[in-house]
């Protein structure tokens, strides 16, 4: 039998101290390491022999823009699309790293790095990279490995997500699920839990946007009797309730900054102290978090702690919006229609080909949740079991008169409503930042952050 080859990692950095220390760390961890000073050498090494992972810096000359790094990444991806690349970035240059991830990097880490965290990231990235000889992904092969019930779809982007779940569900690695509202993040969190060794214990779901700062500690950590006026008995917090199971932190981007450090401490130490207790308790958790915001951009804007971000995102799953997996729409529509019909005792529902065409061509800003609502409304309004395109158009026309439509927010996500309101304020107050902030009920700083997030900053003026 052929002896197993050590996995080879290519380090691309012009700083020899970084090369030496990374190579040493990797070798001590059982990998084979090779070094390159810059793009030319790196591409040469890739052509010379097999490499399983690249760790690459973003600047190789006096430039500091990171463009050289993005350029090298693009060339590596062109040469070997399946080869995973981890970007090394300087502390505070997260927006550059996000551009890299959007351009195909597997993930990124900052210099200086934490040795144990970096090796965990390297291993997780290698585990997830499909070997060149892997058989084609199919829904059937994935269903044979895991229980994905309730998750409908077979678009390659969804299959990739399911494959990642199959690879990481068994571990304790924290997973961050990113995706627009209504793309199925909660469903994915459920699947991770259901397919983990923790499945017999509960998954505890908490909406971080709904916990006020004053209640954070008592909600999460619990309290003992007498800890404060209303604490008449001991109360278990969410962390204790999720012990042995999974803690699902939904809307993690909404967590207040002051509470972020409290959560970070629990994740770091695996210990927490109920309010009023004299001793700390042990936490036994697997953390899955989700957000419809670009968390790395919140870090860049100073709204989310970078250290907490790195604790949460060891594995990142990006759920595609429905418009990027249109081929799944007929499948989803039939599934949802059958469910709705079942719920209302309507018998079997048939969706005509022109209805499926129409559904497949809508923009669906509210994703699968909006698709469900549209189907439900059309079914109930049409009052029959055979639905054509005309029934959907009629249901939509009725909807134009609905209160949601008058508000101009029907079918829009919260993000889109926010953007729409800012655009209106921009127009109304001709870009005067103080008057806009007043009209929107925001501080000027908060408004600036939102303008930046929506890419609307260029039209504003100070006075
Ligand atoms: N692949 C899928 N197959 C079937 N149903 C789905 C799928 N994805 C999502 N859904 C359904 O769409 C609805 C929205 O999903 P979910 O609540 O998980 O979205 P979300 O991304 O968590 O949304 P939000 O960010 O608004 O909380 C749910 O009713 C869910 O069951």
Q: Gist?
A:
By secondary structure, this protein is an alpha/beta fold. The chain has 21 helices and 16 strands.
The residue fraction in helices comes out at: 40-55%
Mean pLDDT across the residues is 87
Quaternary assembly: single chain
Distinct helical segment count: 21
Could you say what the CATH topology of the largest domain is called?
Rossmann fold
How large, in whole angstroms, is the Cα Rg?
25 Å
- CATH hierarchy: architecture of the largest domain: 3-Layer(aba) Sandwich
Q: What is the strand arrangement across the widest sheet? A: 2-1-3-4-5
Shape: globular
What does this protein structure show overall?
This protein has 463 residues and is an alpha/beta fold. The chain folds into 4 domains: 8-116, Response regulator (Rossmann fold); 139-320, P-loop containing nucleotide triphosphate hydrolases (Rossmann fold, 3-Layer(aba) Sandwich), CATH 3.40.50.300; 323-407, Helicase, Ruva Protein, domain 3 (Orthogonal Bundle), CATH 1.10.8; 414-459, Arc Repressor Mutant, subunit A (Orthogonal Bundle), CATH 1.10.10. Helices cover 46% and strands 13% of the residues. The chain is built from 21 helices and 16 strands. Residues 401-409 have low confidence and may be disordered. The chain binds adenosine-5'-triphosphate. The site of adenosine-5'-triphosphate has 16 residues, from helix 8 and helix 16.
Chart the SSEs and their pairings.
Layout: E1 8-12, H1 16-28, E2 32-36, H2 39-48, E3 53-56, H3 67-79, E4 85-90, H4 94-102, E5 107-111, H5 115-128, H6 139-145, H7 156-168, E6 175-178, H8 185-194, E7 203-207, H9 216-221, E8 222-223, E9 235-236, H10 238-241, E10 246-250, H11 257-269, E11 271-272, E12 281-282, E13 286-291, H12 295-300, H13 306-312, E14 315-318, H14 329-344, E15 350-351, H15 353-360, H16 367-382, E16 386-387, H17 389-400, H18 403-407, H19 414-428, H20 433-440, H21 444-453
Parallel strand pairs: 1-2, 1-3, 3-4, 4-5, 6-13, 6-14, 7-10, 10-13, 15-16
Antiparallel strand pairs: 8-9, 11-12
Helix pairs in contact: 14-16, 15-17, 16-17, 19-20, 20-21
This protein binds adenosine-5'-triphosphate.
Modified residues (4-aspartylphosphate): 57
Keywords: ATP-binding, Nucleotide-binding, Phosphoprotein, Transcription, Transcription regulation
InterPro entries: AAA+_ATPase, AAA_lid_NorR, CheY-like_superfamily, Homeodomain-like_sf, HTH_Fis, P-loop_NTPase, Sig_transdc_resp-reg_receiver, Sigma_54_int
